[in-house]
Structure formats: structure tokens, C-alpha cells
Amino acid sequence: MTTTKGPEASHLHPVQVRFSRPTTSIAATSVEHAVEVLAGAEPGTTRIIAGASDLLLDIERGARRGITTLVDVSRIPGADDIRVDGDVARLGPLVTHADVIASPALVQRALPLAQACLEVGSPQLRNRATIVGNVVTASPANDTISPLLALDASIRLRSARGERTMPIERFITGFRTTELADDELVTGIDVPLLAEGERGVYVKLGNRSAQAISVVHLAVVVGLEEDERTVRRVRLAIGSVAPTVVVVPGLDDVLVGRILDADAARDAADAVVAHVRPIADVRATAEYRASTVAVVVRRALRALAEDRHAERWPSASPLLSQRQQPPAPDPRPICVDDEIHTTVNGRSVGAAGATRVTLLDWLREEVGLTGTKEGCAEGECGACTIVLDGDAVMACLVPAARADGATITTVEGIAAADGTLHPLQDAFVELGAVQCGYCTPGFIVAGVALLDEHPAPTGEQVRTGFSGNLCRCTGYGAIIQAVERAAFGASR
């Protein structure tokens, strides 16, 4: 069913008609609270939301219809914990891609997962998007699924009927379909950690260096004998080549007992190519994927053989986050006409209309702060970057109700109360880093978040920090120089 405004709705083209949006938002205070809400809901009407980077877009595009209530679990205390229990890392349901990148234990002993997380979207997206959400969406292009499969991870589910655990390989049943029932909540993911003598790597091929959906991605884990050359086990998962990410069978027969050299890598690549039947889509033809699969498999195995699988891991990749604890959730259901209350740029703000819109729309239309811009409404351009409870995020992918009780900084709050510009704003003016200006608010907010985290950023950190922000006027040179000017002064 669709909803429109005014009698002219019947004359609109179908692409102009928005699908119905949820009318109620509930902030879960605990796992038990979320399970209770799901148990009492009519099937198909209620969905769990955490990072929201996929679900909000699905609702807007009409891919998820009939949803009337969102249960926001993003503020359940402790649900973002990463706990190492012997040889297993237990990830809570709110662990984000940024959390994995910031975890020394996972970087050391689950490197393929950390590498995949660093390839997801941009810092703003990684601050919101969760590992669980990536798995539940179940797209074959989702980066973290291949390392989770290669590491043989399991997923934990809970409902009022009880709890169950299953391998992620069995949980994903097809293209964007899973075993998750309407009344079930994912309570975590268990990831076996790499043991002594085991190595793993993640490789992604995309059409650009950031914000790219995979053309091909894979993760491979090998166990080596004491000589660190002879293969004793191997597990490889590959994505974006079939309706689901697939674990390639039979590689043990190809590699176990052999030296991991160029010949072995070539034979393994041939075996992978023989197993997969690549799909064709807007990103690549099936023929192109088939040829690149062999290349990425050989390169991945060569990197493992030469112990170079971690050499590109950055020492301090920007998160654009101050890692703050979000405020405790208010369990009251928020409906269409209910006000939410938040602190925006140091000022207490209350307004209704938060259940059917994104935080971007609510800030612009209800609060009157129009500095935050809508460029793509899909989290790809960064024009809507704000800081939410210490994290730089894309406001177009945050449900407005999430802001209830939160603290927000928009571009209007970057300058001092007396009007004195932030050094980065001064540098933008001095260096002419503003052209049409539409992208500027997002760059300013992201740049200030970067400087707060890394007061003296390297060039690579600046580029990574801005990887979620696009400038259609191609003004990147002056923008990067402005960050350097703000950090180091005019002498840099």
C-alpha cells in the first residue's frame, strides 16, 4: 500500500509515490524487552532496527512493505561488547564495523573480518552499520559475510520460544533470505579465532576505492604445518558471484599436503573458477567476474604464502568517532504525533513527526536546521554528515526517532557561540575550498570529527576520513589542503 498527500496522488507516476512508512518506534531497553515486543506483534509488521543502513532504504524503495513498527535496539546496554572467550570472539548484536576495526584482538586473530569491515562504505557508515545487520540483509555483495564463512562463524537467535545457534552458512538460505523468523532477535555472532599456524586474508575488487559494492570479494583461511609452508587445512568463501556468498568445496583435496606455492595457488584458483557460475549485473559481466576470480584467488593465496596478508592494515584508520556511550533508551512507544527531545548544537529541541522520516528530514523540516544537505539519500555522498552521540554518521540513514534523548552536532554548531569560525572553516575560506558549496557542510563536519580524533592527521588519514564525502565540483585538492592548514598552520 502506498500513501500520498493531496488529491493529485492518483495522477503521480508510480516512481513518484512513496511507500507507507512505519508509524511507531520503540526503543528497546534490553534483549528481553525486544523479544517481548516481537512476540506480541502481528507477523510481518514489526522489524528490529540497529544501524538501519539497509532497512531504511528497503522501506523507502518498497522492498519491505507492511512494516508499521520499528524496534530500535541500538541503545541496549552492553549489546556492542566484543568478548574473547578462549579461541572464540563473541560479538554482541550491536557491534559495528568500526568496533571491529578498533578491536586489537580481532585485528590480530580475525584479520579477514577486520579487513572486510574497513572496506564497508565509509567511516560514517561504519559507525552505524552492524555486523549482524550485514548478515541478516544476506546480500551476496555484503563484505563481512565471506570472512565470517571462512572463519566458520555461527549466529545466535532468540525468541519467546527459546534460543538456537546455527552456522551462518546455514542461516543464509538464498538471495537476501535467511532462517530468521519474524519473532526472533539475533543476539550475537560467535567467530572462531585464528589459531597458531593459521593465516587469513580478505580481498575485494570494486569499481572505485571507497563506497564501492563488490564486484568480487573473498576470504580465505589456511592452516599451515610447522614448516609454515605446507597446507594442512583451507577454507575459502567468495561473494558477488552467485545469489549467496558460497564456501567453495573440495579445496582441501587440491591444497592439503602441498607447499603453498605458485603452482598450488594456480590449481586452487582453477578449482574455484570451476565451481562458481558468476552472475552478470550492472557492476560487471559474468565473463569479467570469471577472469577476475582466478586473479584474486591467486593473489590472496600468494599473500598468505609470503606472510604479507596484514601488510596493508593501517596503524590508525580514522573512525570519525569519540566512542561515547549513547544515552539510555526511553521505552515509551513513539508515534506520529509524539514529540522527541534532543540536544542539537547545545540547545534543547523538541518536535514531533519523527517516526516517518529520517533524521536528516527531521532536522531540516521540524527543527529548521537546513545546513545539513540531502545529496543522495542513500548514504553515499556525505552531504548530510552530522555527529550523533559522538559518532559522525549519515543523517539520511538514521531514523529520526533514534535522536530522542541524544546529542547532535550539525554544521551550524561547528563555529563558537560568539560566531568565531572553527580553524577548518577559516581554512576553507582562505584556500577557496568551497565551490558550489553544496557538499561543504558534510566536509566540514567530517573534517572537524577527523581533527578531533587525529589532531595531526597523515595524508592517508585525511583521505580515509573523507572517503564518505563526495564533491561534484572536484574540489578535493583545496579541501585536503584546508585540513592540513587547520592542523599544521600555513607553513604546511
What does this structure look like?
This protein is of the alpha+beta class. The chain folds into 3 domains: 7-75 and 326-411, Ubiquitin-like (UB roll); 82-305, Uridine Diphospho-n-acetylenolpyruvylglucosamine Reductase, domain 3, CATH 3.30.465; 414-488, DNA polymerase, domain 1 (Orthogonal Bundle). It has 17 helices and 19 strands. α11 (262-275) packs antiparallel against α12 (286-305) and α14 packs across α17 (476-488). The chain is globular and about 70 Å long. The termini are far apart.
CATH architecture of the largest domain: 2-Layer Sandwich
Mind telling me the C-alpha Rg?
23 Å
Total number of domains:
3
- Extended strand count: 19
The largest β sheet comes out as: 5 strands, antiparallel
Name of the level-1 CATH class of the largest domain:
Alpha Beta
Low-confidence regions: 1-9
By secondary-structure content and strand pairing, the structural class works out as alpha+beta
DSSP helix fraction? 25-40%
User: What share of the residues does DSSP label as strand, in percent?
Assistant: 15-25%
User: Gap between N and C termini, in Å?
Assistant: 58 Å
Give the overall shape, derived from the CA principal axes.
globular
What does the average pLDDT come to?
92
Number of discrete helical segments: 17
Q: The CATH topology of the largest domain is what?
A: Uridine Diphospho-n-acetylenolpyruvylglucosamine Reductase, domain 3
What strand order characterises the main sheet?
4-5-10-6-7
